[in-house]
Amino acid sequence: MLSILIPVYNFDIRKLVRQLHQQGLLLDIPFEIICIDDASLKEYTELNTSVKNLEHTSFEVLEKNIGRSKIRNYLATKSKFNWLLFMDCDSLPVNSNYLHNYSKHLNLDRVVYGGRVYKNNAPKDKRMLLHWHYGKQREENNASKRNIRAYRSFMTNNFLITKKTFFDIQFNEELNEYGHEDTFFGLELKKKNISILHLDNPLEHIGLENNSVFIKKSEQAIQNLYLLYQNYGLKKDVKLLNYFITVNKYYFDKLILLLYKITKKQILSNLNSNKPKLKFFDFYKLGYMLELSKKNNPEKEKK
User: Which residue among 89, 95, 243, 245 is the one 20 to 30 A from 10 at the CA level?
Assistant: First the structure.
């Protein structure tokens, strides 16, 4: 009745799968765990292949990387049960009732999102501080707060959905790199009037990335956001896009872009320090999006 779907890329999933398997055996419903590796490095595929020895568990390695959206759609085609539980591979359940908490909602015709948390203590390695601060301040919210803005608060790291609903929407395969695939998916749910229930049933994000990788992925996410804005008419459903539209509307774009170029080195220095400021990161992302817009619309800049 429950298919647990885990896209894998360059991460050791053995602890996650063992915990899920132990919890699954305590359920009074059929379950399966499907892990598909998106062409990871050999060191990870060799480590993770052992999970297929667990009952009700499969592990497949793709020869070529197909991207974050496509692999999730592919995972769904491999499932045999009516309920799909998607989760990120760089996660761990916070409590031993994680699957049981979801199993209580299998009779609901809506999407259920459990949330995301980070460790309470900051990482000792300062190169991981930006990701940790961002996660604690921007992504870690309890269910009561998330339910206020159910669609905006939706993320794809930890959600339950019926197979029928999933195949009515699916992930946008144009977004094959990191970022905002959850934004688009949430907006499609909203368009189809499919409700989202937020629970306090989080996964802990354990795959912190160093500052340079996190910033690079954030830039990729902005490229995806800009694509959604240009090709799908995405408007003010994302805070960054709201700022972007506003500064363009009131002709502040050139001034902010100039300030971005002048302060870029100082901002990056702060983001790589022991005390990264998220307000600086917000300004960096806005400047990056304005710069991206300029590159994609050179004629506009000449007017």
Answer: 95
pLDDT of residue 303 exceeding 50: no
Q: Which residue has the tokens 């994609």?
A: 296
Q: Which of 290, 127, 149, 156 is nearest to 219 (CA)?
A: 290
Phi, psi of 168 (to 5 degrees): -75, -20
Give me the domain span that covers residue 257: 235-302
- pLDDT at position 300, please? 52
pLDDT tops 70 at residue 220? yes
Q: What are phi and psi of 286, to 5 degrees?
A: -65, -45
Q: Which helix (H) or strand (E) holds 288?
A: helix 278-296
Per-residue model confidence (pLDDT) at position 236: 65
What's the sign of the alpha-carbon dihedral 223, 228, 233, 238? negative
Number of domains in the chain: 2
Alpha carbon of 226 to those of 136, 161, 291: distances in Å? Answer: 25, 27, 11
CATH number of the domain enclosing 54: 3.90.550.10
Give the dihedral of Cα atoms 6, 134, 246, 238; nearest 10 deg.
Answer: 20
Does the predicted model carry a pTM greater than 0.90? yes
